[in-house]
Please model this.
Amino acid sequence: MLELPVYLDNNASTPCDPRVLETMLPYFSSMFGNAASRSHAFGWAAEAAVDQAREQVARLIGAQPQEIVFTSGATEAVNLAIKGVFETYTAKGNHIITCQTEHKAVLDTCKHLERKGALVTYLPVNSDGLPDLAALEAAITPQTILLAFMYANNETGVINPVQAIGAIAKKHGVIYLCDASQAAGKIPVNVLSDHIDLLTLSAHKMYGPKGVGALYVRRRDPRVKLTAQMDGGGHERGMRSGTLNVPGIVGLGKACEIAQQEMAADAKRLSLMRNRLQEALLQIEHAYVNGSVEHRLPHVMNISFKYIEGTTLLMGFNKTIALSSGSACTAASMEPSYVLKALGIGDDLAHASLRFALGRFTTDEQIEYAIRTVTSTVQQLRAVSPLWEMYREGHLADSASWAHP
Ligand SMILES: *Cc1c(COP(=O)(O)O)cnc(C)c1O
Model:
């Protein structure tokens, strides 16, 4: 029996793997000690668990355990990285280069720093969602202190040329921050071969618990220094004060260990499912995949069905499929996804987009259900859509835009 709703929103959050939960549980009860308590066995047990997790996280990304700083998630890690660099390297300059398709954690942190004197370049992307590396290199000035380019995009799954970006950063002596929240544990990530100086990841995007993440801070060649954003007991080598979330950190470590062992097999299985889904949905008239299909995470597909709104489609699924649309309704307006807009996708197609994000627990049966449901819902909605009718009768120019309520 297929259980509904089918969950295909794994880029928003993944379920906690039962093996991860199992590993965490003792740290809520018998092993409840504070990892900073140096005078008794409760503290030592907690510290040992944190040390092991630090090794597990480091191993997944090719880092050293001393280079891992635990945080409350990727948002905090990004804030610490960008603000920490900006405050430390003021003598060198105030220029940051990032990209229009970055996550809000990066963009809003940069916007915040613009009010504090930072100069930020927001590079555009091409229709595949990829930045122009020549334009990136040309944007670097002697005042540039940081490049912030994600590993893989959360909305489209598009994978950046991380190694090439890292090489440019290294050549110009600029620090490279890579938000790997969607890539870590899904595809191979290596801070050494990718020339990454700062890297962020989040447990709940890789089958771990919510509210815990990590920041990798390179210790040599070059040694990156950060100004702490949280003052207190000097935890995490002074970079992030606050009592460590031991159960969460243990969960993140276990999630990294499992990912390292299983990501190749998961990626292979999920890419087959994703390709099956893509092939089937492209049978629908006027369906378009958004972003590069070549440089893309194996489990992600963003697709638009012209002449229907994503939110209407979601309602049409009648709560049987859980996924996201690039059409976000805010209080006063209908703002299509800024990521899709940056790819040059028109408002109509951006509003008509759905993001399918498969995960470790997605089954073939669920994919077949999604194919049937999406196909029939698109057909039903178009049958009653005045826009579709006008298009059929040839009354609609290609650029027809939505009349917003
Ligand atoms: C989810 C996500 C974040 C934020 O991570 P949290 O741990 O939820 O704060 C940042 N960047 C990207 C690309 C993400 O997908």
